[in-house]
Amino acid sequence: MLGETGIDIVPVARIERLIRDHGDGFLRRWFTAGEIEYCTGKAVPSRHFAARFAAKEAVAKTLPGHWDGPLPWRSIEVVSTPTGAPGIRLSDAPLAIATSAGVGDIRISLSHCDDYATAVAITTLSAERRDGP
Fold this sequence. Notes:
133 residues; alpha+beta; two-stranded antiparallel ribbon; 30% strand
């Protein structure tokens, strides 16, 4: 059963500027070591960072609740599935919120071009949530 849907779009130039102006500080605040390694290995890293930035925002839009302070962006990680497709790994507060809301899975789709990156996230409810009240 479908849960929530989130979408986000990010200008690639914005991410290029943040990387240029804030370097590793920006990257380490928003991205995990695995995401940084993946993106920096690409021909145009800013496109891939922008797509992951958009994915984190899209996933956050699917999760009910709020945070006491800034959202822990590194706790929403874009990973590669065994087929090479993007997937999501949650930890810490986002994982707790998703679990308590009965989220069973989060699917994402990423796309980017020279100017923009976009992501869509869709949650499904776990079997317990579907069968419950």
